[in-house]
Amino acid sequence: MIGEPAHSVHDSASRSRSNIVAASARPFRSSAYLNRRPTVIASRLCVRSDARSPIIEESSVILEEIREGSAVSDETFQRARTPAQRARRVEDVLTATRRLLAEADVTALSLGAIAREAGLASSNVLRYFGSREGVLLDLMDGEYALWLPDLDSGLRHTGTAIDIDQVAATTAATLAERPLLSRLIAASSELLRYPMPDEALERCRGQGRRNQAELARILGGALGVMLSVRDQAYLVAGLHAVVGAASGWSVQAAFPVDFETAARSLLAIQLEGLVVRAEKPRLSSAPRLE
User: Fold this and answer.
1) Cα separation, 248 vs 182, whole angstroms
2) Which of 157, 223, 254, 278 is 20 to 30 Å from 108 by CA-CA measure?
3) Is-contact 236 215, C-beta < 8 A?
4) H-type alpha helices, the chain
């Protein structure tokens, strides 16, 4: 994982999103109110100077909905009140995002596009996910949940440790069968650059810890090694780096590279190093030479 953003920026971003969600969820009052209120809200949006910041993009979309009267009001929007209704609303947003990503680039997909595809106002999407990045990272977690059992099943054909190259080949093959997961993994470092509300951030951390432990259990078990917590983190970071590199190089024409072949070779190198670290005593614990 990457370093966390500055706390003050994160707090400011969270407050701005909360203000926007609250403002856009209020019932409409009058044309004078609609003409005045967006200006008041916009004056509170100077959280980042980067024009491409998702914070500004999300805020602009919601303000445009308010100006045009297209934001869903209390009279037309049925709030999800039960846990089952909220779960259905979340799944509807994730399904809509998955449909859009069949053609759109992960990092280019906007909050407004997701909201329109799901049939919701942008403020409603923010209410459930906290940010555009929260939607995409939750979708990645869902894809992880589908991939890990397949990986476990593919490696669990023997009760003993298997060859590193075979583990790498199975891992690469199962990833190649899930291109959406590979694309989300490749984009995850970019998605994690931006601040998220506290609730979304904690949810993301919980997802990361859970997936890290499960991946370490599956691969460590197949290789017959016990990975330390630190090496579990390196396992996930290395996997994401491998997927990002293989994904990037597989879509250019100058030096054609097959995703599965590149991922298999790079993963074998990474796993070899982790196995050596797990099996050998730490260099720092060896007696010093005088």
Assistant:
1) 10
2) 254
3) yes
4) 7-25, 31-42, 54-68, 83-100, 111-118, 122-129, 132-155, 164-176, 179-191, 198-223, 229-249, 259-279
50-79 residues labelled b (16+ CB within 10 A) or e (exposed): eeebbbbbbbbbbbebbeeeebbeeeeeee
Q: Which among 94, 53, 57 is positioned nearest to 195, based on CA atoms?
A: 53
pTM: 0.73
Q: Decide which of 130, 164, 187 is a domain's last residue.
A: 130
Find, among 166, 179, 183, 182, the residue nearest to 264 by Cα: 166
Tell me which residue of 163, 211, 165 sits closest to 188, measured CA to CA: 211
Question: Measuring CA to CA, which residue among 166, 144, 150, 148 is closest to residue 272?
Answer: 166
Which of 39, 41, 43, 44 is CA-nearest to residue 13?
A: 44
How far apart are the C-alpha atoms of 169 and 187, rounded to whole Å? 23
| 205 shares its domain with 249 | yes
**What range does the domain containing 249 cover?**
134-285
| 2 part of a folded domain | no
Torsion 188-193-194-198 (CA) sign: positive
pLDDT per residue as tens digits for the range 89-131 = 999 999 999 999 999 999 999 999 999 999 999 999 999 999 9
- State the Cα–Cα distance between residues 180 and 140, nearest whole angstrom: 8
At a CB cut-off of 8 Å and minimum separation 6, what does 69 contact? 28, 34
